[in-house]
Amino acid sequence: MTADAIAITGIDCRFPGAEGPGGYWELLMRSGGTARPVPADRWAASDFPCEAGFLADPDVFDHEFFSLSPREAGSMDPQQRLMLHCAWRAVEDAGIAPHRLAGTPTGVFVGVMGSEWAQFTLTDLSGITAQIGSGNGYCMIANRVSYHLDLKGPSLAVDTACSSSLVAVHLAANSLLAGECDWAIAGGVNLALTPALGIFYTQAGLAAPDGRCKPFSADADGIGRGEGVGAVVLRRYADALADGQPVYAVLRGTAVNQDGRSNGITAPNRWCQEAVVSSAYRRAGVEPSDVAFTEGHGTGTILGDMIETKALGALHSGRPRPMALGSVKGNLGHTEGAAGIAGLIKVALALHHRTAPASRFSARENPALNLSDQGLRLLKAPLRLGAGPVLAGLSSFGLGGTNAHAVLESAPRGPHARAGKASRPSEASGSSAHESKPPGIPAGVAPLHPSGLGTPLFTLTAPSEAALRRNLFAQADSITRRRTPLGPLCWSSHHIKSGHTHRYAVPATDPTDLAARLRTAAEAPALPPPPAEPPFTAWLFTGQGAQYPGMAARLYRESPLFRHHFDAVDTALLPHTGGSVRDLLLGADPAVHRTGWAQPALFAVGHALGASLTELGVRPGLLLGHSVGEFAAAVLAGALPLEASAQLVAARGALMQELPEGGGMIAVRSPAEPLREYVDHEPLVGYAALNGPTSTVLSGDLAALGRIADTLEHRGIRVRRLEVSHAFHSPLMRPVLEPFHRLAEEIGGGVPALPVYSTLRGKLLESEPMDATYWTEHISAPVLFADAAAQLLDEGPTHLVELGPKPVLTTLAHQLMAHRTRPVHPLPGEQAGARDLAEALATLYGAGLDPDWEAVHPPQDRVLTRLTPYAFATDHRFWHRGLPTAPPAQRPRTPDQSQPAADTATDTAVLEAVAHVGGYHPADLSPGARLYEDLGLDSVAVMELKSRIEQSLPALGELPVQELLSRLSTLGDLITYVTEHHIQEPTP
Question: Is 818 exposed, middle or buried (0-12, 13-18, 19+ CB in 10 A)?
């Protein structure tokens, strides 16, 4: 591929009867037509009866998605609205979330031939508003896209009549090659709002009586009009390849020229058409004989078809095999400003599908064209293209003589993504989890060890709950129809469907399971609310007693990421345990209940879960470990290295295992203080754990514990005897303290770098090191879980993530909560596996976490694949009069601000002013609505709002502009501000 090749990475289009690239391809392959009688909402058929390719529902527009008020949306040329939808969907089709292009030098180039909207909005001089002014003008079609997507590259509209959108593509490609932009959106749009151009065609003798173009046919008798919108996303081919973007086809070269002085300004010039095609071939570095087929301009006028085929024949006659020729105008009609993009998308799809569709009306070839002598043949049937590189041409000629030609090549076959690389516009375009990798992994660099949850996770975002439901249904329907591997499907969802406030994530085992789960979510009574900020997690590490044979074994087998981190712990433990903890758990050995194995095994599971979550992008805000669980917390907090902690845990368990039997533990349903009289009278019994207000564990000599238990049960206090091997955290642990302390002194320990809520101290460790003194005392002292957890909960974590083989600590913590903190269990029980870990990550994603997706997916899944683009709302309609044709749907309101605050005349005046400026009904306005994000009131609208409020409330005086623009964010803010500054109520 040449250095100046341009990749077509994304496509969207909307033509009559053809929604999106899939619908368009289906229309082409069945040689469908689109002409129909003029709709009643265009013009009276009696004024100019005709048939043409009219779009259905061109008045539909999702103004809320783009934060536009109904009034502004209704003032906009519908061509602007069509292009906004189309450009967004094309960017998604290119494999990137549009918000990631914000702030980048992305260019927008739009071809447009007519703007008849002005006839409806600018002829009534008294009715012109600021919104109507910006709602008109060719430039605004491109500028709207740049504005709403926050694109900083070139932004311009091109009018060269019928060749406008191919010239726009030419300019976009040159802008990319010149380095003006790294991404470009090029497109075209056309709507027939009045019969004016049709009357011109008729007067000039160019119109087909039946409203249908019949390119190169013996029945050709003129132009039939068509409507539509299309856009492509272009990138330098090398950049697209490096970022792993799928490519439809490659632009090898384009050229533009002018007819100059022909025999009439609207008459085509054969020699200039020949020259522009030849120039494009030279720029592409190809010979005419290399081109397999050409999408001709093909308007179906006798003169135009004759001149075009002669110009092509001058280059192609004498070929051993004739070049195939067709034109999409037989299907769509002449889409004028969008004709070039309609042809470009057709050629790109043909190269992508390796089939050139038959050209409609080609069965009766015009014999006067002498195509066989010109080295040409009509596409009377679909042409199967070979497996190797295929070249195609595309012509688009303007009514005023501006000609354009492009040469395209099929995209190379094979994997289009590099493992671990996702499409990204620039390093400065936004932050990600790469910026806070685990220690030792540089930012932006994928880990060298195995990655992958083991169960893929599909994610989706939308700006509202209704939009999320709509898009859940759309994705479910699309996934049901497609045969895309689940891993790439999920990987692509993270990179394409991100950026909105409402989030949803779900793990799945296969596409069928995924589609079902998406549909179930869409039908649910309620979806989770959007997160206000990222989750603030507290990690709780489970202590001894939670272990069981085979714990975490399924997760180990299913998740490469967890397996890697567990193996690392097992390697660290192996020199000190005399055997493999991994083998013990995979073999479901009941020896895990022996203290010498239980403590290292719990440490291994806790650390591996924590290390996996850390690599996935979850960052603990707070840490707490119950007894032996505190060792894993210390490693993640940076107080101990993994190897040192493994040595301490192994020694701790082994020393305790060597103690003689005869100790036990009891759980008492009672506060700790009333039990003191019993503990004080039994020197071999102590407090083992204070887990809650009425949850106390005593530990010590079995006989002494039996005496205490009998007394308590006699008094009606519930006692449960625990099945343990030793009396942990009791005076019976004293023999192990000295040998353990000697080892711990050799290892040392530091002050944690993250907040650790010590269950030894019952509070946050501030400057105390977790050293030999700490860990030695840790053995026999009581576990002050309730105090430590209560202090931790006072910090307000949003989620409690329990890192252990089953939920224990979250249940205890729930008894201490003044408010609800959501529990998260990556390993919730004996059958837990990769899907449960993925469910935990899904919960945190829905709460605002942005994971490191490279850790979620193994390299083979990191392949971008196309997803169904965003499904816009279809219940808002805007047409000729600059006002909605149907009332805008009522906006969702927050529960505590569900009614407008119109208690006074001042409130009413403000609400009515906002309703007028935005085009809302006052009943649809709530105090919590944000002026810009929800109501679409930009600075221009705010200035008009200021004037209307001042007129309605003359006693108010002049409102300061700066305060209106910067301080007031919601309607409620505005009402409060005006009320406070209102000197007196206006006179009725």
Answer: exposed
109 contacts 173 by C-beta, under 8 angstroms: no
Both tokens of 177, joined, read 């090659």
- Going by C-alpha positions, the residue among 655, 667, 618, 628 that lies closest to residue 800 is 618
Q: Copy the structure tokens of residue 444.
A: 């932006």
Residue of 266, 285, 110 whose CA lies nearest to 184: 110
Q: Model confidence over 561-604: pLDDT tens digits?
A: 999 999 999 999 999 999 999 999 999 999 999 999 999 999 99
End-to-end CA distance of the chain: give it in Å, rounded.
Answer: 76
Could you tell me which residues come within 8 angstroms of residue 928 by beta carbon, excluding any fewer than 6 positions away?
Answer: 893, 894, 896, 897, 970, 971, 972
**Residues 970-978, mean pLDDT to the nearest whole number:** 85
Q: Which residues contact 812 (CB under 8 A, 6 or more apart)?
A: 691, 692, 695, 785, 786, 789
What per-residue confidence (pLDDT) applies to 849? 96
Nearest C-alpha neighbor of 257 from the set 109, 404, 407, 406: 404
Tokens of 745: 């002194």
Q: What region does 544 belong to: left with phi over 0, alpha with psi -120 to 50, or beta?
A: beta
8 Å CB contact between 704 and 758: no
Across the chain, mean pLDDT equals 90
Where do we find the tokens 């509209």? 157
- Sort residue 690 into left (φ over 0), alpha (ψ -120 to 50) or beta: beta
DSSP state of 226: B
Q: Looking at the predicted structure, is the pLDDT value of residue 139 above 60?
A: yes
**How far is Cα 564 from Cα 986, in angstroms, rounded to an integer?**
73
Cα distances (Å, whole numbers) of residue 334 to 189, 190, 223, 960 = 12, 10, 7, 52
Six-digit token pair at 453?
Answer: 């949850």
Q: If you count DSSP H runs as helices and E runs as strands, how many of each does the chain have, helices first?
A: 34, 28
* Average confidence (pLDDT) over 290-305: 96
pLDDT digits (tens, 9 = 90+) for 237-256: 999 999 999 999 999 999 99
Least confident of 66-70, 205-209, 924-928: 924-928
- R_g of the chain, CA atoms, integer Å: 36
Q: Are 774 and 768 in contact (CB under 8 A)?
A: yes
Q: Name the pLDDT band for 425 (thresholds 50, 70, 90).
A: low
